[in-house]
Write a structure and sequence with these properties.
Elements: E1 2-5, E2 16-17, E3 20-21, E4 30-33, H1 46-60, E5 70-73, E6 77-86, E7 93-99, E8 109-110, E9 113-114, E10 123-126, E11 131-133
Antiparallel strand pairs: 1-4, 2-3, 5-6, 5-11, 6-7, 7-10, 8-9
């Protein structure tokens, strides 16, 4: 998925979806789209769009996240992947993460559906693009 800021206010959000900030834009100017849904030729920003699409495709094929893998969310919060797959509240694949700290929004359940179980306030759902796999342990001092 690629976050897009529309020139006119005919989008559906401001870059934040379900309380998770993915990017920033004015209200009702943000959308998410699959790369195949975006037209790149004939637009004034076609070079930038083409580069963004190549980066998105590269990150999508860079390796799938797996359950029990250590990650960071939004570059700040470490956690452990507890769920990878489809969800009922949005299209596409989502990753459920148990955060080490209480920076989350739920307990692994959302809108009445349980995907994984963690202490309340430690669970988040994210697209894989917002997560970075950890190769070394985080040491808190």
């Amino acid at each position: 998925w690629i976050g897009v800021e529309m020139h006119e206010a005919n989008g559906v959000h401001d870059g934040t979806v379900l309380g998770v900030p993915h990017f920033k834009c004015s209200s009702a100017k943000g959308i998410f789209a699959q790369p195949v849904q975006l037209q790149t030729t004939g637009t004034r920003d076609s070079t930038i769009v083409e580069q963004t699409l190549r980066q998105a495709e590269a990150s999508a094929t860079a390796g799938a996240l797996r359950v029990d893998q250590r990650v960071t969310w939004s570059g700040k919060h470490a956690g452990t992947v507890r769920y990878v797959g489809p969800v009922k509240f949005a299209a596409g694949e989502f990753v459920g993460v148990e955060l080490d700290d209480a920076a989350g929004r739920h307990d692994g359940s959302f809108l009445g559906e349980s995907y994984f179980e963690v202490e309340f306030g430690k669970g988040i759902f994210s697209q894989a693009s917002m997560l970075k796999a950890l190769t070394e342990p985080i040491i808190k001092v």
